Amino acid sequence: MKLHEYQAKGVFAEAGIPTPDSRLATSVDEAVDAGTDMGYPVAVKAQVHVGGRGKAGGIEIASDEAELREAAERILGMDLKGYHVDRVLVESAVDFTDELYLGVTLDRGEGEPVVMVSSEGGVDIEEVAETNPEAIAREHVDPAFGLHSFQARKAVYEAGVPRDVSRAVSSVLETLYDLWEANDASETEINPLMVTDGGEVVAADAVMNVDDDALFRHPDLAEMEEESYTDELERKAGEYGFDYVRLSGNVGIIGNGAGLVMTTLDLVDYYGGEPANFLDIGGGAKAERVANALDMVFSDPNVDSVVFNIFGGITRGDEVAQGINDALSQFDEIPKPVVVRLAGTNAEEGMEILNTELVQVERTLEDAVQRAVQNAEEVGR
Amino acid sequence: MSVLVDDDTRVVVQGITGGEGNFHAEQMIEYGTNVVAGAVPGKGGQEVHGVPVYDTVHEAVRREDADASVVFVPPAFAADALFEALDTSLDLVVAITEGIPTQDMAKVNRRLSETDTYLVGPNCPGVITPGEAKLGILPGNIFADGNVGLVSRSGTLTYQVVDNLTQRGIGQTTAIGIGGDPIIGTSFIDALELFEADEETEAVAMCGEIGGEDEEEAAEFIATEMDTPVAAFIAGRTAPPGKRMGHAGAIVSGSGTGTAESKIEALNNAGVPVGDTPEEVADHIEGFL
């Protein structure tokens, strides 16, 4: 789960990390009021879950009321990389001499947390990681002990942070690690941490993403979840609790287990078709979940044909078959041809239950995918 | 022969009184697995499918001489269950549970590094030596006894590739589903090492997927340390970029790795053929035998 910048800043500020004055605004008038209260210049920042907001036109600096009004009018309501902007953060613009990068995440390869510091903040840090990896100091953390102060200092010195703020930056880094750990974050990040003329540091941005699997022990964070989908189908998938990604093709794909669903996508492509989506119904799916999956895929106007690929382990073939029957029997006419391939746990029972007047049945993955691709070609014609 | 499990393996099922634990304990017993105990706090003294249940794993191990456990404990309590299992110095712990918080697993992994235990998973289908024992949720009927080792990051993809092998009469020594979570116990390399040392394993099928660099590291290991031939499948060639990999995670890994292309290239460079379809993986394996 991603927190918006304003939410993450709230969490950071409460933990003692300096942040600029700011106010959330949902209308141009509210934005202007905020500017009047805080004084100029201010930054107007779209609150949506996309990276690179600045480059995409989602952040502007305004030095007076007219500029603020213009910026707010333009940004509020805009479509930013597929997300609708309905709120902006109006924030005191900080005069800075340096911009730093601080981040905490899990190094998957090492299976350990890692803290990162760079004196090249304020830019696309992924680009820095690629073109000049030495510009980012990294320190691995033993999760049994947490981040030692000496490690924070070491990273800060190695990154070449200005000496007069090294102590303050170390302190922010330690707090950032503590927040990462205490909130089960997958990442906490400040880019940039601005160094002011007076030798102070201020978090001009704030990123905090939380491990969805750990939300059960952070009800306060779970309440902050705000998704702003522009894609109706992805919104629906969120409601149904599916792992779903919409793609540009016309063969709808439903399966169980990420690896098998990805494989089904790959095979649709291999046999000359184009996947319309990735939809994983997950393990142990019952009939209702299967019906919801079909509803999702039928709701996509681009879909010309559907393939179900279920290999039961913890998922049982008879449950899936019942779900397919239930979902399809509600239609007078099946909207798109459906190919079903069932294997594994209770697959035989499932095959017996399956209403073959409603679906086409194939025994192997390869046959099922080829049939679905062929169906899509015929329907699409 | 086999790796990790055989018909001598004495298994304790952690969480045997829960829905999944109960169902799959029965399936495991039916398959012939030597399930000797269950362990569930507060449920000691009960019996499930004829198996005695103890309050602690320690007691199960002491009374029934168990040497492996399989964990069906819900995510909120799973890390504690794993710490408990590791505290008893079992040879093997298989964690089926899906959705264990990543930071919990980082701590478990840290503890694991101090032990000699093999942890398989979490969020995996388990381990099976066909005809002898299965620890986990794998559908036993698709497997056949034979001389091919299988290691996979994805549960259902494991079943798919096994099915392609078994359908043409190629059996397996052992299949290990290592799970696709960011932090797992047994890695591709650990499993490949076991298969390389096993005299009966004549070829290995390896199923990977996009994300992380485990397949690239495995390729390096295969090139330098293995004589047993390996064929692979990599899922996710058509997955849209940027949908899965996190922001800071991509910084650590650097870009250009973790994609299907980089994995396939690394494996090909290590002399490992990568099938375009699961059926093609079976073709390559057949060619090795």
Descriptive report:
The complex is a heterodimer of chains A (381) and B (289). By secondary structure, chain A is α+β, with helices and mostly antiparallel strands. Chain A has three domains: 21-92, ATP-grasp fold, A domain (Dna Ligase, domain 1, 2-Layer Sandwich); 96-225, D-amino Acid Aminotransferase, Chain A, domain 1 (2-Layer Sandwich); 232-380, 3-Layer(aba) Sandwich (Rossmann fold). Chain A is 36% helix and 25% strand. Chain A contains 13 helices and 18 strands. In chain A, strands 7, 8, 9, 10, 11 and 12 form a six-stranded antiparallel β-sheet that branches. Chain A has a four-stranded antiparallel β-sheet with strand order 1-6-2-3, with helices on one face. In chain A, strands 14-16-17-18 form a four-stranded parallel β-sheet, with helices on both faces. In chain A, strand 17 (338-344), helix 12 (347-353) and strand 18 form a beta-alpha-beta unit. Chain B is α/β, with parallel strands linked by helices and 289 residues long. Chain B has two domains: 1-123, Rossmann fold; 139-288, Succinyl-CoA synthetase domains (Rossmann fold, 3-Layer(aba) Sandwich), CATH 3.40.50.261. Chain B is 37% helix and 21% strand. Chain B has a seven-stranded mixed β-sheet with strand order 3-4-2-1-5-6-7, with helices on both faces. In chain B, strands 9-8-11-10-12-13 form a six-stranded mixed β-sheet, with helices on both faces. The chains are: A alpha+beta (381), B alpha/beta (289). Chains A and B meet through strand 7, strand 8, helix 4, strand 10 and helix 9 of A and helix 4, helix 5 and helix 8 of B. Chain B: Pathway: Carbohydrate metabolism; tricarboxylic acid cycle; succinate from succinyl-CoA (ligase route): step 1/1. Chain B: The active site is at residue 247. Chain B: Keywords: Ligase, Nucleotide-binding, Tricarboxylic acid cycle. Chain B: Residues 4-100 form the CoA-binding domain. Chain B: GO terms for molecular function: acetate-CoA ligase (ADP-forming) activity; nucleotide binding; succinate-CoA ligase (ADP-forming) activity; succinate-CoA ligase (GDP-forming) activity. Chain A: Mg(2+) binds at residues 191, 205.
